Fold this sequence. Notes:
single chain; 374 residues; five-stranded mixed beta sheet
Amino acid sequence: MVGERLRILLVEDNPGDARLVKETIAEADGGRFEITHLVRCEEATQRLKEESFDVVLLDLSLPDSKGLETVARVNTVAPQVPIVIMTGLDDEEMAVAVAKMGAQDYLVKGHIDSRGLVRSLRYALERKRQELELAEKNTQLAKLSELKNQFLGMAAHDLRNPLTVIITCAGFLLEEAGASLPDEKKLEFIERIKANAEFMVNLINDLLDFTRIEAGQIELNLEPVELTELVAKNIEENRMLGAQKGIELKLVIEDDGVRVYADPARITQVLNNFLSNAFKFSAPGTKVSVRVGKENGGVRVAVKDQGQGIPADEMKKLFKPFQKTSVRSTAGERSTGLGLAICRQIIEAHKGFIGAESEPGKGSTFYFWLPVLG
């Protein structure tokens, strides 16, 4: 703020007082304040709608407005601009009242010198800035609290079903009837318990990850990364997973040696999510291809499947938390509904963007773009 040229809107109907204010400020501040002088409240509110001012220096008794009404009218049209009252009315109750309405200071004419006036204007600016920052933080906290409650409700709903399955299966195995079950049936119950427990762990991990990211606590260990090598390594690690479902995984490198500034673990997390989804929604005997190539000053990594595709009116759900489409996995695999939302946050934290293209019956392509190192 020091050294900046600040715009004051002086609203004062007394020509002598207005001249004195201008001279007082000029004397103390060496011309760093730019003063616009108006006489009527209506003129002031209209000007505040049209222009940006840093502070309003306001007389309470104007030809078209008196007392608290004057403060209310100015504050209504420009709530973000600090108001300093400068009046001839030495009234403590009025001073408290205008402060409750949002005025930053109450000065009595004739009782303040040039340095005091300039100091009051600067303090008003700083207090208003802090007030606006606090309001913004409170808004963010309210959103986070709402999000947390939303997550807790959804998590409770999504955890209830697998817990019920686990309790039911375990109970049946422990009952007398369980002892007479053939080994094959017992194994089936145990596999159900394991699959549901794994889903619950994944959901909890995704919830923790997403809430940390939403709270601005995402930590990236950024370093120069050769992206094509990272993708190729990831493909090899996922090839077995695709093969288990009879899906061929293919890698297409259009531009080799592309380097980005990234967190390798987080980019791997995004790739794993893309490939996991591609396998989940593809039928055996189909192909999933991963393409890496330069595009628009960056690099685009795209995972394309030959799955069912996604209806156009459901595409907007893809990167939002707990938003699932009507498309079902081909082998009963489950989703937490958070993976793509986490991927979006990770890629945006890398100053990139994420997206998807799909057509029912023709498969889907999920991609992300990152800036390349020069």
